[in-house]
Amino acid sequence: MVSVNDFKTGLTIVVDNDLFTVIDFQHVKPGKGAAFVRSKLKNLRNGNVVEKTFRAGENVGRAHIENREMQYLYASGSEYTFMDTETYDQISLEEKQLKWELNFLKENMNIHIMSYQGEILGINLPNSVELKVVETEPGVKGNTAQGATKSAKVETGLNVQVPLFINENDVLLIDTREGKYISRA
């Protein structure tokens, strides 16, 4: 058990038999009435973000999430196969479990699989990945102030806004949390 007074961003908790990670929290002490903690929680099973208020001092269950390093091997239909880098065990995940992550997933990439009591919750990508540009318009010099961008399609199918000097076959560093261009690799 963990007290809501000890909330930290990234803490994983169990509330009403559901798994949540704390995204944001705020301790509120009104002038009249009891103190409380207002929190924003992300459901690890379905990805929904909910706001929940707890009384100060209330206890919630703490969930211990296991992270195993695995390597993405291949896709077969709507199933994606991963291999444990230590035991060589293979598991398959459905496409619906990997909605956002598919924008960054390349074969032979090492990732972490999150699981709770044997139930696979999803994957953790590195904060940034290197992806090759497969399609973009040539940059045109001209009437640009600063920070002009254009759209580029990378090898996984993701469209990213990039500076005008980026060309096809360039390898880019892409932020996996927001899907934004960082720099050339």
From TrEMBL:
Gene behind the chain: efp
GO biological-process terms attached to the record: peptide biosynthetic process
Protein localization: Cytoplasm
GO cellular component, one term: cytosol
Translation elongation factor P/YeiP central domain segment(s): 67-121
Keywords: Cytoplasm, Elongation factor, Protein biosynthesis
Coiled coil region boundaries: none
Molecular function in Gene Ontology: translation elongation factor activity
Native source species: Paenibacillus lutrae
Domain Elongation factor P C-terminal: 129-184
Top-level taxonomy: Bacteria, Bacillati, Bacillota, Bacilli, Bacillales
Protein's name in the database: Elongation factor P
Database matches in Pfam families: EFP, EFP_N, Elong-fact-P_C
Major subcellular location class: cytoplasm
SMART domains: EFP, Elong-fact-P_C
